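BACKBONE GEOMETRY TOKENS
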Amino acid sequence: MPRSRKSLYEPDYKVLLEMLSQKRVEAEVTQVMLCSRIGTSQSMLSKLERGVVRMDITDLLDYLHGIDVDPVEFMAEYLTRICWKPIARDTQRAS
């Protein structure tokens, strides 16, 4: 049986959180500054960054926008870091 891909403790998710914190620090944006930019509390932002609360795609996009990071470039780097391989799709369809 495949393991759940929704775990807060999934190694790939930990990489995502580490990258986000790193990008925020590189952008010289504090948690307080980011909260102001994206309209959330510092408590919630801290929970998201620590993995206490799972981040969804809209949270991720808001976060990246708040630190002025291109989401496409971020995802390309993330996928490289986790050594993501696309799932092979059957290119022939049943007639």
Summary: The first helix runs from residue 11 to 26. Residues 11-81 form a domain with the 434 Repressor (Amino-terminal Domain) fold (CATH 1.10.260.40). The CA atoms of residues 10 and 37 lie 28 Å apart.
